[in-house]
Design brief:
The chain is of the alpha/beta class and 351 residues long. The chain has 3 domains: 9-208, Spore Coat Polysaccharide Biosynthesis Protein SpsA, Chain A; 217-296, no CATH class; 305-349, no CATH class. It has helices at 20-31, 51-56, 72-81, 101-111, 146-151, 164-169, 183-194, 217-234, 237-241, 245-263, 267-277, 284-296, 305-320, 324-337, 342-349; strands at 6-16, 38-45, 62-67, 85-90, 96-97, 115-125, 131-133, 161-163, 196-208. A hairpin with a 5-residue loop joins strand 6 and strand 7 (131-133). The longest helix has 19 residues, at 245-263.
Length: 351
């Protein structure tokens, strides 16, 4: 039986676990929205800090729910089960929305009923508050995007608005503990199997990087390999609809796993991963360099891939803005962390 949700109304879900340092700013950014038809539900996921006291300052504008710690998927599911809005929007306790966020996205959804879910661009704020747009140049596709999304998670959680009816149709977040950290990615993929997903090319939020919001790259890779197995097991028709997709995803993850092992000087284990990923044409050169580094027993070619990616994105932004000299400086910094970047080399030397 289809539930009747409050039309044109947004339920904003904020899971919080020991995030009292940032939570006020997140709530304030929602309250500052130009679109006023919303409710805010903060789900305290067993915090041991001052989360409850922070929320009390907003008690007239915020619904507060407490539960024992179980992870962000269970927190969001609880909040959504108590919500009444036709639309659901997500923001974590350490993120910030820009004032027109809801207005832009709700208007977009109302004009485009074919989309079950939409996302948008966001500003990435580094620890020193260097900011740059997450998407530069290449705009994500809209529509049936399961294949593209399966190969690379291009959806930023804090920009998502999903129809409540779509969330119900896919049975919400999977609360499995092994999915913590990528539970949102699992939801996007299951949504993409059933519905069209739209991209609004507007910057609507600020994603703050502060160290504590980043899990181990090794853990993320392992979780994504388990997620791959889940989709192979539960959605076997994907293999027929997209031949070779599972293998391509696996090879990409194995290459990333090799890089992580390489960063941590586990050269024998990294060698095994690079020997697998070298079979893929688009990974061959990178994998060969990794193999050479393994034989030389040095990780100078791949010290910190995540840090390199952040530096590269900021350099890309500077390049587009015309600050090519400064951009080359950041490209060089990126290469010192992760040398296996052909596109960066091209920009530094102009070929």
């Amino acid at each position: 039986m289809t539930k009747n949700y409050k039309k044109n109304f947004v339920s904003v879900i904020i899971p919080s676990y020991n995030s009292d340092r940032y939570l006020s700013q997140a709530i304030e950014s929602v309250l500052a929205q130009s679109y006023k038809e919303f409710e805010i539900i903060v789900v305290d996921d067993g915090s041991t800090d001052n989360t409850r006291k922070v929320v009390e300052k907003f008690k007239d504008n915020v619904i507060y729910l407490y539960k024992p710690n179980g992870g962000p998927a269970s927190a969001r599911n609880l909040g959504i089960s108590k919500s009444i809005g036709e639309f659901i929007a997500f923001i974590d306790a350490d993120d910030i929305w820009l004032p027109e966020k809801l207005s832009l996205q709700i208007n977009y959804l109302l004009k485009n009923p074919q989309f079950g879910m939409i996302h948008a661009n966001t500003l990435v704020a580094e620890k020193d508050w260097k900011t740059y747009p997450f998407f530069l140049g290449k705009i994500p596709k809209s529509g049936r995007i399961f294949k593209e999304l399966f190969l690379d998670n291009i959806v930023n959680n804090l920009t998502v608005v999903i129809r409540h009816s779509c969330f119900d149709a896919i049975n919400g977040f999977d609360e499995s503990q092994w999915l913590i950290g990528i539970e949102d990615y699992d939801l996007w993929l299951r949504t993409a199997l059933m519905f069209e997903i739209g991209y609004l090319d507007k910057t609507v939020a600020i994603y703050r990087i502060h160290g504590s919001n980043l899990s181990s790259d090794g853990n993320r890779i392992y979780s994504q390999l388990l997620l791959l197995e889940k989709f192979q097991r539960e959605f076997q028709d994907i293999g027929f609809r997209y031949p070779g997709l599972f293998q391509e995803k696996k090879d990409r993850l194995i290459y990333r796993w090799g890089c992580w092992l390489f960063e941590n000087r586990r050269f024998d284990d990294a060698l095994k991963k690079f020997r697998i990923s070298v079979r893929r044409s688009y990974l061959t050169i990178h994998s060969i360099l990794g193999l050479i580094g393994c034989f030389l027993r040095t990780n100078c070619l791949c010290k910190n891939r995540d840090e390199a990616m952040h530096l590269q994105r900021y350099a890309n932004y500077l390049w587009v803005q015309g600050d090519k000299g400064i951009a080359r400086k950041y490209y060089r910094m990126s290469l010192k962390q992760y040398a296996l970047q052909a596109t960066v080399l091209k920009r530094i030397w102009g070929f």
